[in-house]
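pipeline/complex-builder :: batch 7 item 3
reading input block
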Amino acid sequence: MSQHNIPTRTTLLVAERFVIEKVTQQLPDGRTFSREVVRHPGAVVIVPVLEDGRICLIRNYRVAVEQELFELPAGTREANEPPIETARRELKEETGYECRTISPLCEFYMSPGILDERMFAFVARDLQAGSPALEKGELITNFPVTLSELDQMLGSGQIQDSKSLSTLLYYLRYCQ
Amino acid sequence: MSQHNIPTRTTLLVAERFVIEKVTQQLPDGRTFSREVVRHPGAVVIVPVLEDGRICLIRNYRVAVEQELFELPAGTREANEPPIETARRELKEETGYECRTISPLCEFYMSPGILDERMFAFVARDLQAGSPALEKGELITNFPVTLSELDQMLGSGQIQDSKSLSTLLYYLRYCQ
């Protein structure tokens, strides 16, 4: 599937956090197809596991959907930044926690029909509390939950952010 | 959190499947903040449960990430289309299956930092096989799996599409 012709790309718009491209590509069956694609540098999401086994969720106000969501801490990669470094940095910036142990959990694409954003999920342990350093426009507060509270929140639809839903359900199924 | 000032919106780009807007909003703490947002009409994802309990995944070639992914059937809402009708239509178009029973499973946002796409997940049962009706540019084939094959695929990172990961893990945890 990866040997077909190299796609041609035209930049339509450069935004602060993404770029819109028009991609024209020859499909494996020989037909030509154009589509507008949102280019994104990739991101990380972190499961912060506290000493007592609770998971540190965050409450995060989201301009795009005009509401506060329960999420895991997460953030966008800087240019050439290894995802594990993004994860350490964003965990500290958003929750104040520095971690001594961090390990990869899983990886996935957020919305591969229109967006190339790849998400790298990590589990962070041995956490040391400190002060967050929120960016302009970020409204975030920590919200630690026990595993049974988390299960209840997931099952009742209180966690509506796909990266957090994927990562938390993956963690509960394959890391417990 | 929902009583603060109404945001101002400027359209930057109209693409075939989304619109880019600049949103300027007064945050709950009184500061003003601008961000580019991808506007999307919302989408559906369907867990098709076959008579023998297998789940009908699809293999789907994705232009945005230039690879074939294992996913659940899914698709974008037409204007004013109720999500349950989108789900019936997309299930038929992508897999050929018509369903007699369909029920809501969960709902979530795909990438709420930049994109307002809301995903409505359904479980479809009592399926009747037929012919798919793929759109131009769609390269999709059915890939039915048992629950234990599915579990193995999920745990080994073979399912990399966030909406499918969220929906399948949710289905396995709360509907089995």
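note: Strands of chain A lie at 8-14, 19-26, 32-39, 43-48, 55-62, 67-71, 74-76, 98-109, 118-128, 140-145.
queue -> next item
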